[in-house]
Amino acid sequence: MGFWWRFNLLVFTIAILSTPVLSDLILSKVDRRIDLTSQIVRITSTLKVENAGSGLVSEVLLAFPELQAKNLVYLMATTNEGKGKTKSSGVSLPVEVANPKGMPPALTVYSVSLPKALGEGDTMSLDVLAVFTHTLKPFPEKITQADIQLVLFQDSAYYLSPYAVKFQSLSIKLPDARIESYTKIENTKIHGSEIKYGPYENLPPFSYSPLVVHFEINQPFAVAQELVREIEVSHWGNVQVTEHCNIVHEGAKSEGEFSRLEYQARPHIRGSSAIRHFVAKLPPRAHSIYYRDEIGNISTSHLWADSKKTELLIEPRYPMFGGWRTAFIIGYSLPLQDFLFESEGKRFLNISFASPINDLVIDNLVVKVVLPEGSRDLSVSTPFPVKQRQESKISHLDVVGRPVIVLEKADVVPEHNQYFQVRATIQQVESIINQCLATHEKIEASLRDLSRIGDVQACKTTRKTADGLLKEHSKELKPLLAFLQSSPAAANILPKVEELVAKERELQERWMAKHSIIVDCYEKKLGGREIENRVAPQQQKVVALRQEVEDLLEYIDEI
Are 106 and 15 in contact (CB under 8 A)? Predict the structure, then answer.
């Protein structure tokens, strides 16, 4: 295991040493914090970004080693306008996979679109949260009932970035002060259950210093290989939630015989790594709560409730050691008025997406929203991509069946437990059009970079990426338009929506024509005056169309 990891690290290091600098951005300060107190690894990085060049910069690149990126399940970037330890402004920024020129294959790169392009000397602070699953590796892989659980964590003491870093520090928070071993390099300190690396100054792009931490962790490694949530909306003012859980303990595998007598006598010594219970945080007005498995009701559960929350402590029939499994069902009811809202004749169901069980990793989550019979004109808005389909369900007293919206997502963590809406389609169309406009801005930024540094190939690469994004957006629009065209309720707004889509497509064509003309002129080494004359007709049309699109968006939004 050690040789394999060192070999891969060597290949990775050689690859990144030959990589060119990608832009004039520098990171004047990086504060990185790694939380290893549970099976879910959370890395929070505060980046102070500075534009040291003369051109505008509209994106920041985030790089992850491929071996780490395969376990990345959640990535969020927000603006941070405070100083010191003040909270960020909470403005979430668009993040998408990028493929910049010259990047080594050992890296996976994401692009964060900035709310405002940085000019020469401008700075901005970003908070980046990266969440990983299946990253902590049990070592040893098998333990007895009396053993503690030890795991390995691997990362870099230096912040891996395509930009130079002036000043940086790293802190690693562990669940306990018991540490078997950890990598010691310059400026390494340990304070109880926290390891600190740095500060380090003036490090070049792609600096990398491997670190390994071997430590004790007896927190549950509860993984739901599949979890099915059914959210049934009643005609009679009730929402019934049923969760079918199939959970395995994915910590160090248990070997040897299990003694319940020793476990009951000394559970924290003869079963320190076992899962004793789960805690589910339910909405405050949850009622009619039950917990059962195939045998029947399980009485070893406890409930606490007040005006702000309802907590259900779920204790399995037996303690779960590494490799052991359990399956159970929890169910509860919620007042419909807490989650259903009405606007302009449309009803909006607003409810949380993931399971309420604390620190649970879900390999595959299926959410089924069962709506009352007769519901129509359905659409779904989620804060992240999900697979979506529609089914029907026949229940008692039904005639034609109830429509069921089915959402499916892999690799779900508590950060995904955000609200999603079953709502009107118009907002989705507006969102996609705005994403198209953001892609147009990236094309414009690439043309500005072309005029500044003359890199034609980089400009062509941006164009290729933009083409792909716009094609995807076009695919997303087709079913939404088809739905609106088939819905009598959308008859009044449909002409304006179709006009909006048509104008945006025409704007795309003008942008691409402008891009082709400018790139062709640079390849022919024409002068600035000649380029300006050739592109002027397209530029005038681009400005006019952009204004028409924005006016239509405003009109539709106000209806």
Answer: yes
Task: Determine if the pTM surpasses 0.85.
Answer: no
427: CB partners within 8 A, 6+ apart:
381
Q: How far apart are CA 361 and CA 414, in angstroms?
A: 8
Q: Left if phi > 0, otherwise alpha if psi is -120 to 50, otherwise beta: which for 2?
A: alpha
How far CA 325 is from CA of 148, 251, 275, 322, in Å, comes to: 20, 12, 10, 9
Q: How far apart are CA 114 and CA 122, in angstroms?
A: 12
3-state helix, strand, coil in the chain (%, to 5): 30, 40, 35
Q: How far is residue 327 from each of residues 247, 274, 411, measured CA to CA in Å?
A: 6, 16, 19
Reading the chain (559 residues) residue by residue, the pLDDT tens digits are 443 344 344 334 434 444 445 568 999 999 999 999 999 999 999 999 999 888 888 899 999 998 899 999 999 999 876 544 434 445 788 899 988 877 777 889 999 999 888 998 899 999 999 999 999 999 999 988 888 899 999 999 999 999 999 999 999 999 987 899 999 999 999 998 999 998 999 999 999 999 999 999 988 899 999 999 999 988 677 899 999 999 999 998 988 887 777 777 776 666 678 888 899 999 888 999 999 888 888 777 888 888 778 999 988 888 888 899 999 999 999 988 888 776 655 667 888 899 999 889 999 999 999 988 777 667 787 888 899 888 888 776 666 778 888 999 999 999 999 888 776 466 668 878 888 998 888 888 888 888 888 888 888 888 888 888 898 888 878 877 776 776 555 667 788 888 999 999 999 898 888 888 888 888 888 877 888 888 888 888 888 999 999 988 888 776 6
Q: How far apart are CA 236 and CA 258, in angstroms?
A: 49
Q: Which residues contact 342 (CB under 8 A, 6 or more apart)?
A: 348
